[in-house]
Amino acid sequence: MSNMVFDVDICVIGAGSAGLSVAAGSAQLGASTVLVERGRMGGDCLNTGCVPSKALLAAGKAARRRRDAAPFGVTYAPPGVDFPAVQRHVQEVIAAIAPNDSVERFEGLGVRVVKGSARFTGPREVAVGGTRIRARRFVVATGSSAAVPPVPGLDQVPFLTNETLFENPELPRHLLVIGGGPIGIEMAQAHRALGAEVTVLEAARILPKDDPELVALLRQRLETDGIAIREGARLARVELGVDGELAAVLDTEHGEERVAGSHLLVAAGRRPNLVGLGLEAAGIAHGPRGITVDARLRTSNRRVFAIGDVAGGPQFTHVAGYHAGIVIRNALFLLPARVDYRAMPWVTYTEPELAQVGLTEAAARTAHVEDVVVLRWPFQENDRAQAERETFGLVKAVTTRSGRILGASILGAGAGELIQVWVLAIGQGLNIKALAGMIAPYPTLGEASKRAAGSFFTPKLFGERTRRLVHRLARLG
To answer: How far, in Å, CA of 221 to CA of 68, rounded?
Structure first.
């Protein structure tokens, strides 16, 4: 397609979750659409992120279920782990989903797919090799990549990131994980469940964006599983021993400490993919966190939008899809749609899962001073959790004294599913009485959310004033 010129309504750069959603939506709405992708269709989520990581976690869960079946009266021989077969499972899951993101599907929707690296040559044009694309609106959706911290010696040793982890053919004997965010913690638990020793090295505290009370409970479970977690770890350097063994050297108050392992996973955050885009030629402002956007996801060049990880906001696939809807409304329908993250959830897919929407207790107290009510309901008080032996966990919600829901945190089995009723409640501005009054089927884990919501009314319902009222009404016959 050299020396070709396309004049279209929408040009999308990047075929990850965000870009694919915009391209599919705009083409089906009748807009002429070009999609540019230099790598694999589906981007990070399909190929090296959400999909393979959850597939690996599922393999670890399968092994755990066999080990933990004895309380149900079911026993198995110790599970054997064929790690190359585990990795084949991961690749089969990717392959099963890939047709949804394929060139063929999108061309069938009417999208023209151009393979190659896009570079802005001006405010209204990009070049892909010898092909030039002029568009009424551009959408930059190039995503992010694993960040590599400036640790001395890291460039001298072999290490894994999420981009190479799922091609590793052997189960690590001892996996060292640099970074205690969601990726690091999920992959630590997955590998531990499959039989590896695991040590997590985190400079601050693990999962810093989540509620500390629930993170502390999760940390307890992870350590019970045998994962060594070193928070506040000061990493002096990484080195390779004469025997080929890796080592992370920590700077402690008692001097240097050497933590040896067979494999090293770097999960220390993400960086936006900006290199080679020629943003300056298009007048698009950007910085270390990504492309600068306003609440409508417009860049400093009003013809160009940026969405997903590259826009510097929350780095989740569901946020990328949400961004796509905002851009379609702005670019095609000329509606002033704006992002609103107040009801934006996230989940760490450990076992048990950890889910959050809205404000944590600490953030709520900062924002509302004393006007905060904290509600809790433990999983051990839920009958379905008892039947399933999934009693480790807690539903925690924060509201105002008037019952306005500010946020919810859930640690427990299926937390990613259970959080959704709280997402709806916050998004629709429901009062806590709506959740307290809903009819939940019995026995379900979802009852825990209803019971947590109902506890908002317990002090008043069973208080002395109510007792006096019932007594007076009883005297009326």
So the answer is: 14
pLDDT for the residue 364: 95
Range(s) of the domain holding residue 316: 5-41+102-145+271-331
Look at residue 226 and tell me if it is in a domain.
yes
pLDDT category, 2, cuts 50, 70, 90? low
Per the prediction, the chain carries an average pLDDT of: 95
For residue 1, is pLDDT > 60? Answer: no
pLDDT single digits (tens) 117-176: 999 999 999 999 999 999 999 999 999 999 999 999 999 999 999 999 999 999 999 999
Q: Looking at the structure, tell me whether residues 15 and 128 fall in a common domain.
A: yes
- 263 and 387 inside one domain: no
- Domain count within the chain: 3
> Binning pLDDT at 50, 70 and 90, where does residue 243 land?
confident
Calculate mean pLDDT across residues 392-407: 97
CB atoms within 10 A of CB 31: 21
Would you say residue 36 has pLDDT above 90?
yes
Give the span between the Cα atoms of 72 and 62, in whole angstroms: 16
Residues 158 and 263 grouped into a single domain: yes
This model's pTM is above 0.90 = yes
pLDDT above 80 (res 471): no
Query: Rounded to the nearest 5 degrees, what angle is found at the Cα of 100, between the Cα atoms of 293 and 321?
Result: 25
What six digits make up the tokens of 237? 């350097």
Residues 161 and 263 in one domain: yes
